[in-house]
Design goal:
The complex is a heterodimer. Chain A contains no helices and 11 strands. Chain A is an all-beta fold. In chain B, the strands form 2 sheets. In chain B, strands 2, 4, 5, 6, 9, 10 and 11 form a 7-stranded mixed beta sheet that branches. By secondary structure, chain B is an all-beta fold. The chains are: A mainly beta, B mainly beta. The interface between A and B is medium-sized, with 22 and 23 residues.
């Protein structure tokens, strides 16, 4: 069965630095991959989608890459701010959408 | 405002007492789904609905029921709740099921319903 791995340990970085979060998967490549942001006690909010034939997608300070050879997606937040502190979930579309467990990002001033 | 509304947001109940968590969306979305979120396990799909009167099991359907009589509503029913159903529940909707290549499959989530079964 498909397995999705996100780092369960929190990522701590300083304001202004680039945060990089990883999403790895096994077996088959998904049709597309999504990233969501989730704040404590709130529902996930969609951020970006990247398809299997795309290498990179950008949206403002966000950048997502998708490497089907490495079976990995990287999610970057440049010029990070304390307001970026949240849990970030990747979701992969196989026959259905499957979510990773998320990585918590803490941006300190 | 486009939104998915769940009620109640918080509920403490006892084993065996039937309860319903309501979900309503105002975006005319065809697809709706229920997830539960537990520490270390992430979001797991309980049931989903591709359209009115069409529902199907997700990964963890045991102990739950759903119905989709109207496009906007997708209630989650726990006929006889048990402590292992203590969890954070999310309802989500999408314009379509996301299997169409041109569709982003973006899910719009509700604010969540935290359920405790004693």
């Amino acid at each position: 069965s498909q397995k999705i791995e996100q780092n369960s340990e929190a990522l701590n970085i300083q304001e202004g630095k680039t945060a990089t979060l990883t999403c790895n998967y096994t077996n088959y490549s998904p049709a597309y991959l999504q990233w969501y942001r989730q704040d404590p006690g709130r529902g996930p909010v969609f951020l970006l989608l990247i398809r299997e034939n795309e290498k990179e997608k950008r949206k403002e300070r966000l950048k997502v890459t998708f490497d089907t050879t490495l079976k990995q997606s990287l999610f970057h937040i440049t010029a990070s701010q304390p307001a970026d502190s949240a849990t970030y979930l990747c979701a992969l579309r196989f026959q259905k959408l499957v979510f990773g467990t998320g990585t918590r990002l803490l941006v300190s001033p | 405002e486009a939104q998915v509304t769940q009620n109640p947001r918080y509920l403490i109940t006892v084993t065996g007492k039937k309860l319903t968590v309501t979900c309503s969306q105002n975006m005319n979305h065809e697809y709706m789904s229920w997830y539960r979120q537990d520490p270390g396990l992430g979001l797991r799909q309980i049931y989903y609905s591709m359209n009115v009167e069409v529902t199907d099991k997700g990964d963890v359907p045991e102990g739950y029921k759903v119905s989709r009589k109207e496009k906007r509503n997708f209630p989650l029913i726990l006929e006889s709740p048990s402590p292992n159903q203590t969890s954070l529940y999310f309802c989500a909707s999408s314009p379509t099921a996301g299997h169409i290549v041109s569709n982003t499959g973006e899910l719009f989530f509700g604010e969540g319903s935290r359920l405790t079964v004693l």
